[in-house]
Q: What sequence folds into this?
């Protein structure tokens, strides 16, 4: 079910080119997968259907067309339940744990960002809510089916057994996993996006801008040009002169 | 002289953006007194610009929403692709998008500040390829005005010495910034294909000027506006400069709906709706300059129809609203594996492309080697930008590996934005919608649009060469395979709409003469993009401003000489 070998990009992922981010096949770490692999692979019929929650979209005023840009405020009520937020915490810990580069997504408050996101009275965010909220229900129902308990009560290995089935766009994806995969894809994007756009994430990824500089723009660092020259050489182009220093 | 609220004036200027701001500034410098009417609210960039605020401080991490189409921090007030209570309509089968803002300074508060001037070929397109029309002016006539405008606006750039990119005299431009890592790679890759890559001329000060504006400090996106005045907008420059003389009065929240004419078919008054009270206010107008944007000018003229002018004001030619043009637009994205995980440094620069790809096919077109008549350029994106809510896209899996994949991919993507010239065609125009009015009761515009074969073939050429460029950079194209028809963006989407009151030398086929003076009403001028005869691929705003300066100077001479 989990498409262990080949991880291809489907059409949906291909559309991510619009974000300007890398839409390449990623070599995925295997720590979680090995843990999951110790369990018997679930039979296909163990996977349940996507919950039909009949959610009413959140409407109402947004921040309007002339909000205060200097002192920004979020004006709409948050809507996720405590249980939903706990479950997002648990999933965010799997998606974006603490590592050498920076803290975990949960530690920088991504769950509150996701609550703000799915509670926003805008069409695009409401479309995302129709993935996130039913997806959380699906995760628990699926954990109940597989392990007889909610996701939160499942062991680490059990959790990964489940997540491994929805974390890659394999080919083919069984119909019953299509929506769960879309859910996880959206949640992962929000968790990683909220993490890397947080002050801690900005530091982690190494964004060094938003700092005023006097005088002419200094240009690329010596280290950056040295690296570029390696790239230029591999393409048969002349190297760039190194900046002083 | 007329008078409004105790202020005496010679000219009413409608609009405060690129055209209106420059028209008013020029008239005031010539000693005339100007009443400026702006449809939007007052706006103060010193107080209102979000300098240095991070995405994390904004709702939804600053993401685009229906309220703020270009993101939370974009310097657009009560506008975007829709303005509340002020719709526009489109004909069946038409895709057209109109960007407006309702603020002093208009769209100059957020624009890209790309200011490549038109070259000699661009004023004489029909002479070159037989299509469209020639302008009634040429580059040589424009050159000194471009110099004066560039100098006043504050432009950084250099002289690459290429075909149809005129050299600018010493002392006009300020130095451009150095290229970023990806831009160096772009240049080497393009040169291996025989394509030039040059500095983008941009309306950003790289050195301080004596009028109080500061040099760029290489941080915080220009699209938010610029409280230090380094990135040009009329609200930190032309308007405050003109106000300082005491000869300009600005009235905001003044939505102009009619220009009135009287004896001898001369304009004599303007009616606007006061946005706050919703009342009609009629002000005397000895002379009128329209510069509320190309399409809004057409709307005012068409709505100002009377028994004497049944087709609308200044429209005996029937050309008002016709010849609507935008730039063509399409995007190609790529990923450069060798740049994954590259060393970090502060790459903000002036926050837009330092280098770009100018059109390189003039000679091939002259030699008949290409199957489309007009050129395009590629604007270039790709740097260590401030991370946002979409920065986690494009990875699979989870855990430390997924987190690392985001870090590795950071700064390794590239983006080529095609911006090209379209040939005007009879299917692209706007007219008054007979059924729909805005919240002020003013009939709205209805748009008709169809790209021609020239544009589709041009975009196909761009898709092919964009892919070659990305591959020459050692990258792979990540945007989907598309036809020209699929890739071309909607009319209006590049926000370069021009041409709806074009200038010409024949009153039968044009709305104004070469001075922007309407043929039918001699004290009524158009000084926005409406007067464009063609829509060269070079971004339009610097030419709007240059024409406004040139034509407002001529207008002032006529007034002072007693001829107007």
A:
């Amino acid at each position: 079910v989990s498409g262990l070998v080949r991880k291809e990009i489907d059409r949906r992922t291909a559309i991510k080119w619009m974000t300007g981010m890398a839409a390449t096949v990623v070599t995925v770490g295997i720590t979680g997968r090995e843990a999951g692999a110790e369990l018997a692979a679930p039979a296909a019929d163990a996977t349940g259907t996507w919950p039909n929650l009949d959610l009413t979209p959140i409407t109402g005023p947004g921040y309007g067309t002339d909000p205060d840009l200097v002192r920004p405020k979020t004006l709409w009520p948050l809507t996720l339940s405590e249980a939903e937020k706990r479950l997002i915490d648990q999933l965010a810990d799997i998606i974006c744990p603490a590592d050498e580069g920076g803290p975990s997504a949960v530690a920088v408050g991504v769950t509150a960002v996701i609550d703000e996101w799915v509670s926003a009275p805008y069409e695009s965010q409401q479309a995302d809510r129709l993935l996130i909220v039913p997806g959380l229900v699906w995760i628990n129902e699926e954990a109940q089916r597989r392990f007889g308990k909610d996701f939160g009560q499942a062991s680490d290995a059990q959790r990964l057994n489940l997540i491994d089935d929805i974390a890659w766009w394999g080919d083919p994806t069984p119909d019953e996993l299509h929506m769960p995969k879309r859910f996880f894809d959206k949640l992962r994007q929000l968790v990683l996006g909220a993490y890397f756009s947080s002050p801690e994430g900005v530091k982690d990824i190494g964004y060094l801008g938003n700092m005023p500089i006097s005088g002419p723009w200094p240009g690329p660092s010596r280290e950056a040009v040295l690296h570029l020259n390696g790239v230029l050489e591999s393409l048969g182009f002349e190297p760039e002169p190194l900046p002083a220093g | 002289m007329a008078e409004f609220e105790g202020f005496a004036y010679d000219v009413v200027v409608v609009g405060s953006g690129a055209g209106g701001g420059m028209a008013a500034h020029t008239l005031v410098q010539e000693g005339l007194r100007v009443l400026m009417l702006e449809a939007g609210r007052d706006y103060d960039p010193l107080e209102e610009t979000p300098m240095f605020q991070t995405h994390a401080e904004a709702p939804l991490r600053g993401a685009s929403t229906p309220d703020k189409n270009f993101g939370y921090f974009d310097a657009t007030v009560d506008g975007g692709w829709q303005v509340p209570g002020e719709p526009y309509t489109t004909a069946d089968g038409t895709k057209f998008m109109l960007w407006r803002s309702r603020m002093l300074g208009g769209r100059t508060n957020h624009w890209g500040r790309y200011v490549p001037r038109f070259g000699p070929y661009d004023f004489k397109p029909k002479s070159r390829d037989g299509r469209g029309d020639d302008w009634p002016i040429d580059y040589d006539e424009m050159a000194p005005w471009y110099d004066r405008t560039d100098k006043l606006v504050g432009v950084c750039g250099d002289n690459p010495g290429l075909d149809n990119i005129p050299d600018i005299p010493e002392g006009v431009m300020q130095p451009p910034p150095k290229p970023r890592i990806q831009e160096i790679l772009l240049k080497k890759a393009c040169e291996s294909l025989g394509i030039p890559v040059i500095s983008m001329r941009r309306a950003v000060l790289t050195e301080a000027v004596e009028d109080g504006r500061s040099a760029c400090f290489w941080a915080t996106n220009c699209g938010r506006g610029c409280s230090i005045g380094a990135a040009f907008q009329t609200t930190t420059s032309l308007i405050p400069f003109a106000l300082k003389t005491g000869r300009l009065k600005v009235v905001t929240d003044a939505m102009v709906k009619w220009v009135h004419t009287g004896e001898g078919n001369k304009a004599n008054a303007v009616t606007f709706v006061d946005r706050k009270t919703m009342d009609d206010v009629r002000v005397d107008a000895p002379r009128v300059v329209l510069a509320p944007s190309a399409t809004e000018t057409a709307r005012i003229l068409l709505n100002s129809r009377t028994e004497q002018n049944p087709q609308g004001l200044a429209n005996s030619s029937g050309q008002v609203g016709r010849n609507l043009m935008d730039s063509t637009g399409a995007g190609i994205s790529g990923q450069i594996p060798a740049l994954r995980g590259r060393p970090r440094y502060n790459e903000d620069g002036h926050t837009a492309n330092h280098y770009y790809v100018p059109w390189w096919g003039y000679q091939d077109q002259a030699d008949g080697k290409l199957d489309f008549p007009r050129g395009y350029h590629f604007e270039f994106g790709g740097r260590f930008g401030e991370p946002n809510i979409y920065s986690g896209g494009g990875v699979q899996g989870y855990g430390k590996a997924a987190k690392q994949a985001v870090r590795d991919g950071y700064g390794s993507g590239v983006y080529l934005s095609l911006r090209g010239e379209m040939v005007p065609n009879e299917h692209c125009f706007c007219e008054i919608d007979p059924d729909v009015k805005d919240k002020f009761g003013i009939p709205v515009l209805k748009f008709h649009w169809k790209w021609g074969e020239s544009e589709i073939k041009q975009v196909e050429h761009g898709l092919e060469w964009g892919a070659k460029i990305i591959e020459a950079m050692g990258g792979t194209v990540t945007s989907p395979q598309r036809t020209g028809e699929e890739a071309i963006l909607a009319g209006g989407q590049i926000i370069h709409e021009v041409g709806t009151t074009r200038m010409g030398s024949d009153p039968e086929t044009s709305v104004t003469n070469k001075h922007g003076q309407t043929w039918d009403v001699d004290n009524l001028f158009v000084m926005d993009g409406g007067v464009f005869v063609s829509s060269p691929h070079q971004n339009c705003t610097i030419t709007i401003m240059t024409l406004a300066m040139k034509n407002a100077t001529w207008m002032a001479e006529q007034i002072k000489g007693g001829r107007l």
Residues 1-45 of chain A have pLDDT under 50 and may be disordered. The first helix of chain A runs from residue 11 to 14. Chain A is about 45% helix and 0% strand.
